[in-house]
Specification:
Length: 105
């Protein structure tokens, strides 16, 4: 991997592009259903982890974080992981409104 791989990374367009670029195996169905969640987790994880200085080591660290993001959603759901604000504000129990409480105006 050349030292300019990070420049190339900015040209990637889809989640599948990221997996192919970093050589990370993935479940196509899982990525199709959770692509935004996986990529956001990948991005969030990169911000939390100290990155190596050497480009080749940094490439491997990015690949590991992408694989970890994929694994998170292989074992959990977007609602459980609460990546996006819409899931953070949801109650743990579903809302229930009794039929008797519904009125016509």
């Amino acid at each position: 991997m050349s030292d300019d791989w990070e420049d190339t990374m900015y040209e990637l367009e889809s989640a599948e592009d990221f997996f192919a670029f970093f050589g990370v195996e993935f479940d196509p169905h899982l990525v199709r259903v959770n692509r935004l969640h996986i990529l956001q987790r990948f991005h969030d994880n990169l911000a939390l982890v100290a990155m190596p200085e050497a480009p080749a080591d940094r490439f491997q660290a990015y690949a590991a974080q992408l694989a970890a993001a994929h694994a998170d959603f292989a074992q959990s759901t977007p609602k459980q992981e609460k990546i996006f604000r819409v899931f953070q504000s949801l109650p743990d129990e579903p809302a229930f409104v009794p039929l008797a409480n519904l009125t016509r105006h």
